[in-house]
Design goal:
globular
């Protein structure tokens, strides 16, 4: 899931179309989600376990491979 922080809905729609995003996205213009996950800047990645526990939190670009490995390890 991608969450856009303090963006306009029209800008989010343009970004999704430009980059062909196929996953669900949401808009957090009030910073409620960002504050709940201790957001510190974009991009910001949070990996959450099946139990709802935060298992990883990273600021800055993350490779697809790195994120995939974290998720696959949680699924074992």
């Amino acid at each position: 899931v991608g969450i856009f922080v303090k963006d306009k809905e029209s800008d989010v729609q343009k970004f999704v179309k430009t980059y062909g995003l196929t996953f669900p996205v949401g808009l957090d213009d009030g910073m409620k989600i960002a504050n709940a996950y201790k957001f510190v800047g974009t991009p910001f990645t949070v990996v959450i376990s099946k139990k709802g526990e935060i298992t990883d939190r990273r600021t800055g670009p993350q490779s697809e491979k790195a994120v995939r490995e974290k998720i696959e390890n949680l699924l074992k």
